[in-house]
Specification:
By secondary structure, the protein is α+β, with helices and mostly antiparallel strands. Helix content is about 30%, strand content about 35%. The protein has a four-stranded mixed sheet, with helices on one face.
Length: about 70
């Protein structure tokens, strides 16, 4: 089961910065689900994952909340 990070109500760059901080605490292969309301968060987190070597598993919108799933790299 993925850990969850609620960054609803925060705007750029805070969602990606909070995700980056949380990823440091996770073991390789662990998954994190980010809940955000900032429409730029999925794109920003995908770019962060690409740069940091993490896997971007996807993003979807559910009732105005973006649900973003990522997996920590090695």
């Amino acid at each position: 089961m993925a850990e969850e990070l609620d960054v609803k109500g925060l705007t750029c760059p805070l969602p990606v910065l909070r995700a980056k901080k949380r990823m440091r605490d996770l073991a390789a292969g662990s998954e994190l689900r980010v809940l955000a309301t900032d429409p730029g968060a999925p794109r920003d987190i995908e770019a962060f994952c690409s740069a940091a070597g993490h896997a971007f598993l996807g993003a979807r919108e559910e009732g105005g909340v973006f649900v973003i799933d990522i997996r920590r790299g090695a």
